[in-house]
UniProtKB/TrEMBL annotation:
Keywords: ATP-binding, Cell membrane, Membrane, Nucleotide-binding, Transmembrane, Transmembrane helix, Transport. GO terms for molecular function: ABC-type oligopeptide transporter activity; ATP binding; ATP hydrolysis activity. The chain crosses the membrane at residues 172-202, 274-296. This is ATP-binding cassette subfamily B protein. PANTHER family: ATP-BINDING CASSETTE SUB-FAMILY B MEMBER 10, MITOCHONDRIAL, ATP-DEPENDENT PERMEASE MDL1, MITOCHONDRIAL. Residues 369-609 form the ABC transporter domain. It comes from Chitinophaga polysaccharea. It is a multi-pass membrane protein.
Length: 615
């Protein structure tokens, strides 16, 4: 079983209980979380902390000044000759404290907001940076996707966690201040306080576990829900949804999943609110018991009226703050559990490790690429996509790959460009394993345009520049690439030329035909000065004449380069020096067009088949 599967088994399942210990263990993620917050902005983090410490002293100060005011008022009401100066000074102090406290809360919530936004951006960037380091096959794993999804959710959810943890620290200090005040008058009140809040906390904590487990178990369904929502309401899918009349099918599926989400959550929410009410009652009983004690002591003359107001106020405030802390503890640990998902995602390491001392890429390539008994299967499949494949792609050669759908042509190309490494055998470049070369250098020296290339909803220039993004400001180079791919005349006719926005997603974007998109995408191949150029059916949407011209041009432009092209059109394929025929992942024939025709084998058969279609 894979390490990932093992990791999954350890996670709380439907029947497993998330223990208190596990919750505490999740708190271990907090230091790493704070490191990330600190990296986001040291200045804002310090300012936020200082303001919160100042704010935590406010409740006790306000209550105490309030007590002094009441005592003064009582004194003055009994003895009118007493000076009132101290009373008015106290009122002025309370007024000042109230203003400062209000200003502090506003400043804190401002800093929370700013820090939260910066943190969300910082985390999103880290998630993207990490995704860029991972291997392609990791993206093809559903479990990986779930992790990525949960990590992605962290970015906004965790800004709340940040405010919660900081408020928690602030409230703990507030409680310490208030409790100290209470202890001085009557330590027993603290015991009553615990009785009033602990049961409510345990209840809250229990339900938070259940909410977390519910959300955890729903991750992959939630992904499906997002996908259906996208299919049902997106410019890219609208055409097919209409033509195939899919909307009801999609809506029914959406309703089925979302109804289940709703029912599961509703059951939990109803139980939560019933128990919450019961424990709120217990809490209120604790508070009023304490109130009665304080009142009795005041009647007996042991406490002044000011003391009564101070203690009752302190107790009430302590109860709310303490309850807040305990309840928040539960959501902080829950947040920390989600953090575990984020850090688990960051822990996923690419399997294609770079060699310690990579070899420089040969310039120029001497002998070429040799496949030695290469076998490959995708992680999510038991079937060999390629098996026992041996051949050499000679330096400077133009090789065409031919084979029926699913024969393994694209897979071969992905292996050549090291998107994957072979599972069996090896691929050599000038006699040395491809894995020994620097992967980044390899990527600059091998240019590939895939059949499912991306149609970026960006400008024409940007769409071409993705071929070599470091040259995105090199307009002459971009225009030259467009000339070479024969896209130039098309771009010239666009209202904004190279600055034309493509696609329908953004305003003023124009949509292109399939063939027009291909010409633009092809220009990416010419952005790189790569030694090996691979075109994987990037011309399938071009009409026959356009494809012929593109390849004629391609052959001319790559005269001293090595090239691999995949096409289902034999008029194009025959331009190659040699043709490799693949069938179910294995090589069946290799040779020039004429040699293969003379051989009257698989190639000749496929060629005749196509020729007959044109007759
Ligand atoms: N990402 C993937 N995960 C699992 N299996 C895959 C994946 N990509 C391709 N395959 C499988 O590998 C085999 C070879 O696919 P490949 O895309 O290389 O074929 P191809 O010759 O390029 O086909 P086509 O002419 O249709 O583009 C197929 O059986 C396909 O189902």
């Amino acid at each position: 079983m894979s390490a990932q599967m093992n990791a999954r088994r350890k996670r709380p399942g439907k029947d497993e209980e998330l223990t208190f210990k596990e919750r505490l263990a999740a708190l271990r993620n907090l230091p790493a979380f704070f490191r990330m917050v600190w990296q986001t902005s040291p200045g804002l983090t310090i300012a936020n902390t200082l303001l919160r410490v100042a704010q935590s002293a406010m409740p006790l100060s306000l209550l105490y000044v309030g007590k002094l005011i009441i005592d003064q008022v009582v004194l003055l009401s009994k003895d009118a000759s007493h000076s009132a100066t101290w009373l008015w000074e106290l009122v002025a102090i309370e007024f000042a404290l109230a203003i400062v406290s209000d200003a502090l809360s506003r400043a804190i919530s401002l800093l929370d907001g700013l820090l939260g936004d910066l943190f969300a951006n910082h985390t999103s960037i880290k998630i993207m940076e990490h995704a860029a380091r991972l291997d392609l096959d990791q993206f093809e794993d559903a479990e990986f996707y779930d992790k990525l999804e949960r990590a992605r959710q962290q970015t906004s959810g965790r800004t709340v966690l940040l405010a919660q943890v900081l408020s928690q620290v602030q409230d703990v200090i507030t409680v310490a201040f208030l409790a100290a005040g209470l202890m001085i008058f009557n330590p027993w009140l603290i015991l009553l306080l615990l009785l009033a809040v602990v049961p409510a906390f345990l209840n809250e904590s229990h339900f938070n576990d259940l909410y977390y487990k519910l959300a955890w178990g729903q991750t992959s369904d939630r992904r499906e829900l997002d996908y259906i929502r996208y299919l049902g309401a997106s410019d890219e899918t609208a055409k097919e949804v209409k033509v195939f009349d899919l909307s009801n099918f999609l809506i029914d599926r959406f309703r089925a999943i979302s109804d289940k989400f709703y029912t599961d959550k509703k059951t939990l929410q109803v139980r939560d609110s019933i128990w919450g009410t019961v424990f709120a009652f217990v809490g209120a009983a604790g508070y009023y018991a304490a109130y009665v004690i304080i009142i009795l002591q005041t009647i007996r003359g042991r406490l002044s009226i000011g003391d009564l107001a101070f203690l009752a106020g302190s107790f009430r405030q302590l109860r709310t703050t303490f309850q807040g802390i305990l309840i928040r503890f539960s959501s902080v640990t829950q947040g920390a559990l989600y953090l575990r998902d984020l850090f688990e995602y960051f822990e996923i390491q690419p399997k294609m490790v770079a060699v310690a001392r990579p070899r420089p890429f040969p310039r120029p390539i001497q002998t070429g690429f040799t496949f030695e008994d290469v076998g490959f299967k995708y992680v999510n499949s038991d079937k060999w996509a390629i098996r026992h494949l041996s051949f050499t792609l000679h330096a400077g050669e133009k090789l065409a790959l031919v084979g029926e759908n699913g024969a393994g042509k694209t897979t071969l190309v992905k292996l050549l460009s090291r998107l994957y490494d072979p599972v069996e055998g090896r691929i050599l470049l000038d006699g040395v394993d491809l894995r020994e070369y620097d992967i980044n250098e390899l990527r600059t020296q091998v240019g590939v345009i895939f059949q499912d290339y991306q149609r970026y909803q960006m400008t024409v220039s940007q769409n071409i520049a993705v071929g070599k993004i470091t040259e995105s400001h090199n307009q002459p180079m971009i225009e030259e690439a467009a000339r070479q791919s024969l896209a130039y005349p098309l771009i010239e006719k666009m209202p904004h030329g190279f600055d034309q926005m493509l696609g329908r997603r953004f305003s003023q974007g124009v949509e292109l035909s399939g063939g027009e998109w291909q010409k633009i995408a092809l220009a990416r191949a010419y952005m790189k000065d790569a030694q090996l150029l691979i075109l994987d059916e990037p011309t399938s949407a071009l009409d026959a004449r356009a494809e012929y011209n593109v390849f004629l041009h391609f052959a001319e432009l790559t005269r001293d380069k090595t090239a691999v092209l995949i096409s289902h059109r034999f008029s194009t394929v025959r331009m190659a020096n040699r043709i490799l025929v693949l069938e179910r992942g294995s090589l069946v024939e290799i040779g020039s067009h004429q040699e293969l025709l003379d051989k009257k084998g698989r190639y000749a058969e496929l060629f005749e088949l196509q020729a007959a279609g044109y007759k």
